């Protein structure tokens, strides 16, 4: 009897980590990210024929991927944090979020039963950046709206693949996550860009 079924393969937000990937840079953990959402919209128009009130079909226009990321302000703004960690941006005296080069976001989820799933959002371009400072909130929230070129929805990965850190061989939910002391073994990336932004085709957990 095969016990490897769909039971115990659900994931929650607390099982997930998000990483940002820039050209010629290793993944950077988005530790202050509290939520990320996206939507896909495609323009479709009805096609009618003379003498018939029913719709014969629909045209298929361009597809637009857009989304939103919300961050909690820890000690500095996300852009300042990325500028310090990415060599290509370190020489910039001042850069705003809409001036960032296209980047990818990778979301990895691993539950307590060691099942792993991964999602990629390619070619993210920030179009709106806002911040809320209010006496009604217990923290300062930074909201970023973006458009993207493509995405790969959640796909399961082999359960024998692991994510390691500097201090132990445990899974992603180790103490290193909270101290931001995080490395990924077996990571390889391509320096050539394609239509999906930058291709990271050999990520290995």
Protein model, in words:
This protein is mainly beta and 205 residues long. It has a domain at 28-42 and 57-160: Pnp Oxidase, Chain A (Roll). The chain has helices at residues 78-85, 175-179; strands at 16-21, 28-29, 33-42, 46-48, 55-58, 63-72, 103-110, 116-132, 141-148, 150-157, 193-194, 197-198. The strands form three sheets. Strands 1, 2, 3, 6, 7, 8, 9 and 10 form an eight-stranded antiparallel beta sheet that branches. A two-stranded antiparallel ribbon has the order 4-5. Strands 11-12 form a two-stranded antiparallel ribbon. The protein starts with 15 loop residues before the first strand and ends in a 7-residue tail after the last strand. The model is unreliable at 160-205 (pLDDT under 50).
Topology:
Elements: E1 16-21, E2 28-29, E3 33-42, E4 46-48, E5 55-58, E6 63-72, H1 78-85, E7 103-110, E8 116-132, E9 141-148, E10 150-157, H2 175-179, E11 193-194, E12 197-198
Antiparallel strand pairs: 1-2, 1-7, 3-6, 4-5, 6-9, 7-8, 8-9, 8-10, 11-12
Characterize this entry briefly.
This protein has 205 residues and is mainly beta. It contains two helices and twelve strands; from the N terminus they run E-E-E-E-E-E-H-E-E-E-E-H-E-E.
Helices and strands, in order, run as EEEEEEHEEEEHEE
Percentage beta strand: 35-45%
What would the principal axes of the Cα set say about the shape? Answer: globular
Helix content: under 10%
The CATH class name of the domain at 28-42 and 57-160 reads Mainly Beta
What is the CATH fold-level name of the domain at 28-42 and 57-160?
Pnp Oxidase, Chain A
* Oligomeric state of the chains in view: single chain
| Continuous helix count | 2
CATH architect. name of the domain at 28-42 and 57-160: Roll
The residue-averaged pLDDT reads 74
Give the biggest beta sheet.
8 strands, antiparallel
N→C terminal distance: 29 Å
Number of strands: 12
Q: SS-based structural class? A: mainly beta
Q: Regions with pLDDT < 50 over 5+ consecutive residues?
A: 160-205
Q: What Rg, in angstroms, do the CA atoms define? A: 20 Å
């Amino acid at each position: 009897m095969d016990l490897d079924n769909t039971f115990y393969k659900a994931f929650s937000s607390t099982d997930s980590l998000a990483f940002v990937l820039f050209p010629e840079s290793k993944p950077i953990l988005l530790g202050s990210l509290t939520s990320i959402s996206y939507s896909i919209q495609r323009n479709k128009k009805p096609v009618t024929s003379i003498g018939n009130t029913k719709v014969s079909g629909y045209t298929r226009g361009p597809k637009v991927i857009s989304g939103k990321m919300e961050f909690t302000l820890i000690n500095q703004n996300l852009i300042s944090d990325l500028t310090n960690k990415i060599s290509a941006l370190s020489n910039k005296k001042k850069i705003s979020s809409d001036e960032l080069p296209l980047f990818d976001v990778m979301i990895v989820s691993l539950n307590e039963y060691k099942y792993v799933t991964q999602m990629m959002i390619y070619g993210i371009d920030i179009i709106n950046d806002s911040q809320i400072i209010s006496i009604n909130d217990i923290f300062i929230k930074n909201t970023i709206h973006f458009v993207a070129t493509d995405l790969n929805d959640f796909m399961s990965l082999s359960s024998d693949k692991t994510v390691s850190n500097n201090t132990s061989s445990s899974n992603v939910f180790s103490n290193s996550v909270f101290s931001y002391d995080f490395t990924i073994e077996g990571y390889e990336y391509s320096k050539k860009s394609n239509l999906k932004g930058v291709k990271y085709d050999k990520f290995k957990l």
